[in-house]
Amino acid sequence: MSENPATPETAAAAADVTAAHAPVTAAPPARPLGATAASAAVPRRGAPMFPDGTGPAADPAGSHHERRIRSFQPRRSRVTASQAEALRRLWPTWGMDIDGLSRLDLDAFFGGLPVVLEIGFGMGEATAQMAAADPGTGILGCDVHTPGQGNLLRLAERNGLSNIRVANGDAIILLREMLAPGSLAGLRVYFPDPWPKKRHHKRRLIQPEFVALAATRLAPGALVHCATDWEPYAEQMLEVLAAEPALENLHSGYAPRPEFRPLTRFEGQGLDKGHTVHDLLFRRRG
Description:
- Its EC number is 2.1.1.33.
- Belongs to the class I-like SAM-binding methyltransferase superfamily. TrmB family.
- Pfam families: Methyltransf_4.
- Pathway: tRNA modification; N(7)-methylguanine-tRNA biosynthesis.
- Strand 3 (about 140-145), helix 4 (about 145-160) and strand 4 (about 165-170) form a beta-alpha-beta unit.
- It is built from 8 helices and 8 strands, in the order H-E-H-E-H-E-H-E-H-E-H-E-H-E-H-E.
- The two termini are about 35 Å apart.
- The chain has one domain: Rossmann fold, CATH 3.40.50.150.
- It has helices at about 80-95, 105-110, 125-135, 145-160, 170-180, 210-215, 230-245, 265-270; strands spanning about 95, 115-120, 140-145, 165-170, 185-190, 220-230, 245-250, 280-285.
- Helix content is about 30%, strand content about 15%.
- The longest helix is centred in the first third of the chain and has 14 residues, at about 80-95.
- Strands 1-4-3-2-5-6-8-7 form an 8-stranded mixed β-sheet, sandwiched between helices.
- Mean pLDDT is about 85; it is low at about 1-45.
- Helix 1 (about 80-95) crosses helix 4 (about 145-160).
- By secondary structure, the chain is an alpha/beta fold.
């Protein structure tokens, strides 16, 4: 089960947000954001969600990077008032768009903390729990789901977590164009979209090319941790990770679930359906 509850078939391919249900024949009276209903935080179809540039961009890399098969579809969906408020207030400090135009200074962004990259954090509950349990490690969460980005920032502020930053856009561009070799202390990919149909397997994130690229951005000893409840994808993950010469498996096959990875509600739903969750723990060779 993916951390993101929407499936590729139901996800909107466009970056436009869902239109508000209120009639648009007349403009509604101005109200403070915190006093609006959840749907009132969503602009009308076609209108930019953050016209003043205080939130994540719809397509941060634009067209200056090559076209290729992607493992995700950008989805803004319905953003609640609290999520939108968190994005507007916190994005300029704790957020970044993956535009691929400059190198990211992780030391400056995280105040010198070692940084783990988490790709696909869903609504951010597990990310916030791990950040709280390990305040000495920075977590750079990469996702394209606007509600989840806002929710993670909201959780970080509410719980006083200064070791979380949010990256918006394509993780491959982030790794290839914006992160220096050997700059990451770890990589986490939890419950990525399994793309279960055979014709969609090429869209899966964990492929040899991706793993080879990610390995170059990991410092010696950095931990790669993947988890999935989709058995065929787990088998592919194990095969691909084991074939990467820069990585070594910390177990003979799959790993027991580490205590530092929280049990999320989506994972719990998968377990209730009889799914088996597989963890994989690999380490960057020195």
